[in-house]
Amino acid sequence: MISPLVLYIQKAASLENTKPNTLNMISVYTYQELQYRISVMKSLNCYLRQAPLTKDGNLIKGHYKNLVSFLEHMASERTFKESADTETQKKRETARKSLIDVIADGLGRFAKPEEPEDYKKHVTSLICTVVPVWMQYRDAFFHIDKEI
Question: Are the C-beta atoms of residues 43 and 63 closer than 8 Å to each other?
Answer without folding.
Answer: no
